[in-house]
Structure formats: structure tokens, C-alpha cells
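Quick one:
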Amino acid sequence: MILIHSPGRFWWTRAKPGNSVVFVETKIGKTTLRLVTGDIAEQDTDAVVTAAHWRLNKGNGTDGTIHTKGGPRIYEECRRIGGCPIGDAVITTGGNLKARHVIHAVGPVWRGGDEDEPKLLASAYRRSLQVAVQHGLHSISIPSISTGAFIYPLRLAAPIALKTIIEFLDREQHQLNEVRMVLYTREDDTAYTVFSRTLEQILSERAASGTA
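Output:
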């Protein structure tokens, strides 16, 4: 494990032989914020977030994986809920997953950026965290919302995701010990690199401003 320390922040990079990155992590207050590559459906946190359609239908990508591996109880609860507004999130059982709960977050479809997409994407992340806190959860895994089938540009989505999460951890009352961003490299092999560089930039800005 490589530990890099600079004023105001700690930055850990754990690597496999050959320098293949497994995760990067930092502390925001008492909460560990970690970036990993992997399958959201295999995470062992209290809840996993899925990037859902507003109708809460079984989707493709990470959402399809969640429903397939989690089993029919997840969709049964989704049908009872009926739907979820864009920018909001709802919670169901985790079914057969390692996680006890699934939080279904509805991000926006990218339409060029003129239809409140940044505001709605930030809201989807914020509401996911709020729902976790409201249910007394201590750890949560979150994918890159809207950057798959909803074609939100990754380079624009990453700063919104990370700044929203960090702002929440800084300002809101919560009992979260870990927030884990799970980046699915089979969907986009640049996702981990984009998110890790974005996080490093945000941490540098926080250190420079004295907020870290």
C-alpha cells in the first residue's frame, strides 16, 4: 500500500502486483470515502445504490445486475412503490445481495445540459445519502449514476458526484462510516481514472482553502 500525505489530506492507494489499482480512499471527517472498481451488486455495505429508471422497471447495466443477483423480492417492492421522480431515491430490500438494502436513485438522461441535468444528478446522489441516513445505515456503495444508458458525460458527472457526496459528509448530520464509489470498468474503462483524478483535484482545492 502506498501512502501519500500532503498538507490537509491523506491519500491512500492500494495496488496489486504490477501497479494495478484496487482502490483509492480518503477521510471526510470521520467517514471513509473510497473509490473502487468492481460490481455494485457484489458490495458488502449496508446498502447499494442502483441507477434506476423513474418507473423502477428492471433496467440494463448496473440496475439489471442488481435485479438479477438480488432476486425477485427487489422488483416486487419496486412494483409496490410504483415509481420515483427524477432526482429522487427510494429504498427496498436487498433480496439475495450481500447488502441489506437497495437504494434506487433516478438520475437524469443527458440532453445537452440545458434541462437541469446537473441539478438533478446532484439531487440523486444527495437523496441516496439522505435515504441511507434516514434508515440508520452506516455504509453505502454508489455507482456512477446516469453515465451508462442515460449517457451523461463522465467528465461532467464525476465532479458533481464527488462534490455532492463530500458536501453532504461535511455538512449534514449522519452516522456513515463509509461511502464507496463503485466504478464498473466494463461499462467505461476510463471511469476509475476520471473519478480518481477528480477526487485528487477536489482534495487539493480543499487543502488549499483550509477546509480539509
